[in-house]
Specification:
Strand content: under 5%
Low-confidence stretches: none
Helix content: over 70%
Largest sheet: 2 strands, antiparallel
Shape: elongated
Strand order of the largest sheet: 1-2
């Protein structure tokens, strides 16, 4: 005879509930998936599918009564860790968008700003272009597989029911801001160097031949060289993006 009591229901739901909550929180903060164009039902379905598929790789999860204070604390823990995983990927995307801002500033394209519906603010053409390339690279470099692996490994590194203080100390979230500038400068440095050399040449020309209207000639030259350099350096974007993404997601793996 089957008996349906609160303990039995909790024992059935707990192995699926905690990975589902952590994955759903991650998808809520993840770039592309957090946009309004992605329906909530798609995120819930993906989180449920990942939670079921990851059952064989997950450790033994504790059984907590759903109305207990420990369960409420576990829900908060899953939401915080899931949002942190998604936000770490957003940091890498922001680094490439920051590189686009720097390149656009040197090319003279930052005056062409428009509304970005994903962030609700102003964005430039080069920043949106780099952001779109980051979304493509995320799929090409199997970033989605690294993300699922990071979610599964996070249950080994930060088990359900453990304190948030250990996670916040290991994640070192305040240092993530430096990653934006470091990776952004790494990606934009070749183009910045090239455009700096062009500006130096234009400065020499203006001194040697003052009769040349350097302001009328400088913008198309800088823009043309910038677009050419953008095409030439675009294949080099994969390496820093992949390394930065792997380094950010490693924080949620086994702690040495």
């Amino acid at each position: 005879m089957l008996v349906f009591d609160e303990a039995a229901i909790a024992q059935w739901l707990n192995p699926l509930l905690w990975p589902f909550l952590r994955t759903l929180a991650m998808l809520t903060a993840l770039p592309v998936f957090s946009q309004r164009a992605v329906p909530i039902r798609v995120r819930v379905g993906l989180a449920f599918f990942i939670a079921i598929s990851a059952q064989a790789s997950l450790p033994v999860l504790p059984v907590l009564l759903l109305d207990s204070p420990a369960a409420i604390a576990a829900v908060i823990q899953q939401v915080v860790i899931g949002i942190a995983i998604g936000f770490s990927v957003r940091v890498v995307f922001s680094a490439l968008e920051f590189a686009g801002e720097l390149v656009g500033l040197q090319m003279g394209l930052n005056f062409a700003g428009f509304f970005d519906p994903s962030t609700g603010g102003q964005a430039t053409a080069t920043s949106r272009f780099f952001g779109t390339m980051a979304a493509f690279l995320f799929i090409i470099t199997n970033g989605h597989l690294l993300l699922i692996q990071a979610v599964v490994q996070s249950f080994h590194s930060f088990p359900v029911g453990s304190g948030l203080s250990d996670f916040l100390h290991a994640a070192a979230a305040p240092k993530w801001g430096a990653e934006v500038f470091r990776v952004g400068l790494w990606v934009a440095l070749p183009l910045i160097t090239m455009l700096l050399f062009v500006n130096l040449v234009l400065g020499v020309i203006s001194r040697v031949a003052p009769q040349i209207n350097i302001f009328a000639m400088g913008f198309p030259v800088t823009l043309g060289v910038g677009l050419l350099g953008l095409v030439l350096t675009l294949p080099l974007m994969q390496t820093p993006f992949a390394l930065a993404l792997e380094r950010m997601l490693t924080m949620f793996g086994p702690q040495g």
